[in-house]
Write a structure and sequence with these properties.
- With 478 residues, the chain is mainly beta.
- The protein folds into three domains: 8-111, no CATH class; 124-129 and 320-477, no CATH class; 150-307, Collagenase (Catalytic Domain).
- 13% of the residues lie in helices and 34% in strands.
- The chain has six helices and 26 strands.
- It has helices at 124-127, 143-148, 174-192, 225-239, 297-307, 342-347, and strands spanning 8-13, 25-26, 30-32, 35-48, 51-60, 66-70, 77-79, 82-91, 98-103, 106-111, 154-164, 197-209, 250-255, 265-267, 274-276, 279-281, 284-287, 356-360, 364-369, 383-387, 392-399, 412-419, 429-431, 454-457, 460-468, 471-477.
- The strands form six sheets. A five-stranded mixed β-sheet has the order 7-6-1-9-10, with no helix packed on it. Strands 2, 3, 4, 5 and 8 form a five-stranded antiparallel β-sheet that branches. Strands 12-11-13-17-14 form a five-stranded mixed β-sheet, with helices on both faces.
- Helix 3 packs across helix 5.
- The radius of gyration is 27 Å and the shape is elongated.
- Bound molecules: zinc ion (ZN).
Length: 478
């Protein structure tokens, strides 16, 4: 029996058949040098995939120090005096038929009382978000959006046209000057999608001259659907003699900085809304003078509208980053932007449905969450979703400063609400537990929960219980 100084080392072997959860077993006190320690398994396990969470109630007499080592975990727990509730995450394969306590050469075995208790899992509670016909909903895709959205998985063939005007000729080689912007954007999306979306961008060499003066397109004061359509069709017509549009999924049109087109915008057109000599075209993105001022995250933002993602900043005139700050690049792209929420990646098919643990009804759920940004194994759990109404729920995920999240100033659990009935620009996703104070990367950037932190959203409470490597152990009560 190993000793840790004056520490009392217990080895607890837990064991339950794979499917079992629930139950209680009060252990007899284990005596050591006058100190007493007893361990009660209060609610024994919830197993998701290969990991199980076991709730322990440990009572320890005052004095000395006690360490509990649980089979299947990599770390021993140092126990406080008195009664402590601890949750440990163990590998399912380490669960056996009996609980075993060992101390000072003495072994106590107990059988665990088994009271199976259902664990909500699988996709149904997520899918149950009602399918109202909301444009760019964060819930199920509406029929009309479904006709327009580009496929978010696989390879997309994208034609890139650089346009100038009779009154505003372009300078230099546009492909060369914009290459980094386009490459950054495509690479940002490749990273967010874990390599599941591949944009093959084919630039049309040189400037393509538009038929009319720049001011005639009416783009200086915002852009209407009709203006957008006319502008795009002119660009496609002007490029058509030199471009084979066969197989093109989307068109990019970037304006010379010598013309005044201040903003960039996505055009959500069903196939046939635009046309070329070779056939029907639809989805497109136009880039204005901001294309060279913001890095490729602007590209990623606008292109993601053609995949069906909504705007997460507020369309209201003030405090526009109140909902999600920089936690998703469909929100603030001007501060230090970060990656996409897990919820968005589920919608786009970039995370598998079994990587989201879904629950509904009054329940307590334990989960170990791998960092959202790491590709990981396809089965690794990335988020927990608790359904709170017919259209809404609360999501918890694990964010660390890596890859597209490299500008984050901390690691921890991020909690937010999703509501499929809330339109784009009105806060369909809202980050919880943040103030407007920040830790260096924009509004709401203090939202991450560290170990020991907790946040409540309505009747859902999220606690961060521990950390194993880069993974977080969390508890969600509803
Ligand atoms: Zn947008």
């Amino acid at each position: 029996m190993p000793r840790l100084g004056a520490a009392l080392l217990l080895s607890l072997l837990l064991a339950l058949p794979a499917s079992m959860v629930g139950g209680a077993s009060a252990g007899p006190p284990v005596s050591a040098k006058g100190k007493k320690v007893s361990v009660t398994i209060v609610r024994q396990a919830q197993c998701h995939g290969n990991r199980c969470f076991v709730v322990l109630d440990v009572r320890r007499s005052p004095g000395g120090r006690a360490v509990l080592k649980v089979a299947g975990t990599r770390t021993a727990l140092t126990l406080a005096e008195g009664s402590t509730r601890r949750v440990v995450s163990v590998a399912k394969k380490s669960l056996r038929k009996k609980v075993k306590l060992r101390h000072a050469g003495r072994t106590t075995k107990r059988r665990v009382v088994r009271k199976p208790q259902p664990v909500n899992s699988g996709r149904r509670p997520c899918a149950a978000l009602s399918a109202r016909d909301v444009y760019l909903s964060v819930g199920p895709t509406s029929t009309s959006d479904g006709r327009v959205n580009l496929s978010s998985r696989g390879t997309l063939d994208v034609a890139s046209i650089y346009v100038d005007f009779p009154d505003a000729p372009g300078d230099g080689d546009p492909v060369e000057s914009h290459q980094a912007f386009v490459d950054d954007g495509a690479s940002y999306l490749a990273t967010s999608s874990y390599g599941r979306l591949d944009l093959q961008v084919r630039p049309v060499p040189g400037w393509v001259r538009m038929p009319a003066p720049s001011a005639s397109y009416g783009l200086e004061d915002g852009i209407s659907y009709a203006e957008h359509l006319a502008y795009l069709q002119d660009a496609i017509d002007a490029a058509d003699p030199d471009v084979d549009f066969r197989g093109v999924d989307a068109v990019l049109v970037t304006t010379t900085g010598n013309a005044y087109l201040p903003g960039s915008a996505a055009f959500r057109g069903a196939p046939g809304t635009l046309s070329s000599d070779e056939g029907r075209l639809g989805p497109a993105v136009t880039f204005g003078s901001d294309a060279l001022e913001i890095d490729g995250v602007l590209f990623a933002h606008e292109f993601s509208h053609t995949l069906g993602l909504p705007d997460l900043y507020a369309f209201a005139p003030s405090d526009i980053h109140r909902y999600v700050g920089t936690w998703d690049f469909m929100g603030d792209i001007y501060a230090k932007p970060s990656d996409l929420f897990a919820w968005q990646r589920i919608k786009l098919g970039w995370l598998a449905s079994n990587q989201l643990l879904c629950t509904s009804g009054a329940t307590t759920t334990f989960a170990e969450l791998a960092p959202l940004s790491s590709p990981g194994r396809k089965k690794s759990r990335k988020a927990v979703f608790v359904r709170t109404s017919a259209t809404s729920g609360v999501v918890v995920e694990n964010r660390v400063p890596r890859r597209n999240d490299s500008t984050l100033c901390a690691s921890g659990a991020l909690v937010y609400t999703v509501d499929s009935s809330v339109p784009t620009g009105e806060g369909p996703i809202r980050v919880a537990g943040a103030s407007t104070a920040d830790c260096g990367s924009g509004e709401l950037s203090d939202a991450l929960l560290d170990v020991g932190d907790s946040v409540s959203v309505g009747d859902v409470t999220v606690d961060v219980l521990g950390r194993e490597g880069a993974s977080l152990e969390i508890r969600v009560k509803h």
